[in-house]
Amino acid sequence: MFRASKLATQTRSLATLRSKANQITSKELYEPIFKSDRVYPDFPVLNVRLQGYDFVPLERYQSYVHRVAKKFGFTIVDSYAVSAQTERITTYKPNSTLVDSEIELAKYDRTVRLADVPSIRLPIFLTLLKTHAPVGVEITVKEHEKADEDSRYIPDLLLREKQEELKALDDPAIRRNLGWE
């Protein structure tokens, strides 16, 4: 009735159909995968500036911002501290001009610079930062400017003074007074 050659050709044809069919992964089993071809713009460079009066929570929060930015896949260009700004506060005794106490407060400043931040992920990132911010920490997010880079460095007053002296030595009147000409 059945021949062996006919049975062999039927099994061979089933094997070729199976090899031609697409392999379905477990993700595609119940829902198809939709490929999105949307393109969202990226922010070029952003500064996340953290300011606070308490040093330890600010340092820990900066490391938290750094970790979360890494998990979001942002490029971290730089993470640095800016010199603290000190303010002197004077309190007076009630109804008098006598000084009750003087307090010096230092406001610490940390900056995390991010690059290639997709505009679709930024609101989620900022909501997460705002939700987990410790008490007393101010968060400012803005695009990077040259003024931000300049505020990072402390000016060397002695070096500037010496540079001005050297420039003054180029003046012909001063050179004559020194007897160089």
Task: Offer a concise description of the structure.
The chain is an alpha+beta fold and 181 residues long. The chain has a domain at 40-153: Alpha-Beta Plaits. The chain has six helices and four strands.
N-to-C order of helices and strands: HEHEEHEHHH
Overall geometry: flat
Taking the sheet with the most strands, its summary is: 4 strands, antiparallel
Report the total helices.
6
**Name of the CATH homologous superfamily of one domain:** Ribosomal protein S10
Helix content: 25-40%
User: What's the architecture of one domain, going by CATH?
Assistant: 2-Layer Sandwich
Would you count the extended β strands for me? Answer: 4
**Quaternary structure state of the chains depicted:** single chain
Report the average pLDDT across residues. Answer: 85
The low-confidence parts are none
Strand order of the largest sheet: 2-3-1-4
Describe the structure.
The chain has helices at residues 4-20, 55-71, 122-131, 146-150, 157-169, 172-178, and strands at residues 42-52, 75-92, 99-118, 138-143. The chain is built from 6 helices and 4 strands, in the order αβαββαβααα. The protein is of the alpha+beta class. It has a 4-stranded antiparallel β-sheet, covered by helices on one side. The chain has a domain at 40-153: 2-Layer Sandwich (Alpha-Beta Plaits), CATH 3.30.70.600. The radius of gyration is 33 Å and the shape is flat. Residues 47-142 form the Small ribosomal subunit protein uS10 domain. It comes from Panagrellus redivivus.
